[in-house]
Phosphoketolase (Cutaneotrichosporon cavernicola), 838 residues
Amino acid sequence: MAPGKYDATTPPKASTLDPKVIGPLLVDLRGEIDQLKKVYDVQAVMDFQRAANYLSAAQIFLRSNGLMKRPLEQKDVKRRLLGHWGTCPGLNFAYAHATQLISELEEKGEEPDWLFITGPGHGAPAVLSTLYLEGSFTKFYPDYDFTEEGFEKFVRAFSFPGGFPSHVNAETPGAIHEGGELGYALAVAYGAVMDRPDAVSVVVVGDGEAETGPTAAAWHSHKYLDPATNGAVIPILHINGYKIGERTISGCMDDLELAALFVGYGYKPRVVEYGKVGDAQPDGKTNHENDVAVNYDMAASMRWALSEIRQIQEAARSGNPITKPRWPVILMRTPKGWTGPREVGGHTVEGSWRSHQVPVNACATDHGQFNQLVEWLKSYKPEELFHAGGSGELIDPRATKIVPKKEKLRMGQNTATYDAFEPLKVSDWREFLHSKDSEVSNMKAIGAYVKKIVELNPKSFRIFSPDEITSNKLDACLEITHRDFQWDPETAHDGGRVTEMLSEHTLQGFLQGYTLTGRHGMFPSYEAFLGIVATMIDQYAKYIKMAEETPWRRPVAGLLYIMTSTLWRQEHNGYSHQNPGLIGSFISLPRNLARIYFPADANTSVSTADHCLRSKNFINLIVGSKNPTRVLLTAKEAEEHCVAGASVWKAYSTDGGVDPDVVLVGCGVEVTHEVIAASAILRNHGLRVRVVNVNDLLVLGPDEGPRAHPHALSDAAFYALFTIDKPVVVNFHGYPKDIESLLFGRARKDRWRVQGYIEEGTTTSPWSMLRVNHCSRFHLADIAVEMVCKLAPQHAISADANRIQMNWRHELRNHQKYVEETGEDPAWCTEIPEVKGK
């Protein structure tokens, strides 16, 4: 490509679609715009935008002299210029029109419950600016008040040490979305309005963000929104044409192509485009006609969107719901870097990718660029909007005329975003326990308990699952509720508490939006595929970590993930379904938030689920099993074990675990079953065995230093469980490295062996998975004898070790032959050997 060619800001080429077919699908509001011109105060909206745009640019560039009381100097410029200018004007534009509409509704006596959710998270200068203008920032951060000192401090604080980060996060008033990773805002916006019938989420989705898989799936979210009982979303696709260095996909689509796409999604699209009125185009100078026209267009579009929403909701709430209602979507075309420098160094900036971040990034040292910065800032006429000195108001009333009078109606002060938590109503978990030695599915046991939770919390608890709730044996709740897919006539409009969609990203977004606005939820999924949302969970954890450090944010419900259909019983689906990798991701989360549980039977599963659902702020992971397994503990034993996190299982140990030759540790369902079987085998060969089970994985981690976890065992408790010098064999559900990372620093490597999943698997029999990954009872017994002989060669078993070890290895070969001949495991694989002389 020739130099300079990429600067072109020509519109996308016309599509080959027939405008006679597609054109009518685009909403025409010319009549409404003409009527609006007679009553709408467009100047007030434009003054708010002008003030917000100035503040956005000032935050990116200035470390001092934000009010421009004196001529700007290069020393006033920040030395590290950070931020994303390109999206800011569009965000300010959308925020201004949402704010104006709220104020109009307020004047009519309504109390709108509106949120503003920002997809382009690095557009924080815009969000912070609008929050400052409406007074929300000062409410939560009184030091940033409407004084000269507060104003200057506010301008300086953006992306500055001791200030605020470059993206929207938990420190941002009104935010329920971490702005670090793209793609999640749309789903979060929908989750936030579920079971809040009067709520409206205005969500701006960047056209770069729209290229992500999570956003692509989330466009279907309205199909899970019951208009009778839920609020609504006004999605705004912000098409400014470019991402960091290239055109965007939607930026290269014309109106007809976009109409075809969004009509296909199930929306009614409305295009708002700068510079389109009368085919007028910017002439290289400020085009006031286009500025005014696009504001009228956006005002009419926002009112149209709200009107469409109310028609859909009123129909559903009157008992005559519209089948497959077409919800509004606004396709907003504005120039990237709108109102910024049009050209820098001979290259186009406004309307191109060069405005994405910092347009005049050498202004601190280059006099030419500095002069451009000065002219740019002056173009907003800040002296009209901000008054330095004197006894009057710092911010001119014209800049804040559109701000709602009631503070609670301002989007940055909506209590749903920071103080809406209501405790979950729970039943006594002991009502859902099972007798010891019975055969029960852990997930069935949890399912019965969750059914009661659904019954007790019909408007504040939801289950989000990727079409797997029945497969994962949690379908008991479907006896009293339904799925909520609105395009299915069998489940629409029945208040279903279960959302099943084959997009883990969208479900995670729903869960975040739902819980961050005060409600409760859980996310069960196949183990191998829950890791799809690992980075989303990480982003959410960062949000909660900062929320806990932000004094004005109240706690929210803990998230509960249940990882089931696990690798040990995915032998029928094969190798692709065998992946416990999410466990390692959870170990890396902030230690004060992460909780990882491996309940070994039905009773510990119910106790653990009850604890997780009642938690606040925690990010809980339960690793379960859906197949029937033996109940190993009584109700009292299960409760005590779950409280301790790890304990000696005396019934399966020699003399209650006193003075062992070897310690066998189980962490997980199937692997614990093998530990108990190995204990019986070893005890029959004369070894003294202590069986320890770990339910709360992170008790194994360090109890001191930066990696310490609140649940970590003290050294005294740790060595009381595992001894100081005896061999320890751990049979772990997941990757051995995860346990080894926790033990680092306080375990002698020569006396510890960790067995776990080692990426061996195929379509085979259940017990074969244990065999090929060296986690079977015979492998554990073999390793235990080997380690006892190594650490205590004088032990009586040493003389006979080779014979019994070879017999165990022979049993493993016989099992392989049996499976290959019959296609199933022998009956003894599900049995616990009897201990002789017991």
